[in-house]
Give the backbone structure.
Amino acid sequence: MADNFLEKHFEEYEARKAAYLRKKKHLPKTKSRLLEHPEDEAL
């Protein structure tokens, strides 16, 4: 096994995680919408 295998992979993971979080901050927030159901739900 190569030396620093886990350290290298952990650094790559941290870089991907940081990039994801940077991208996530710029996305518009979505409001959870409640589904509108008609009052009379005839089956």
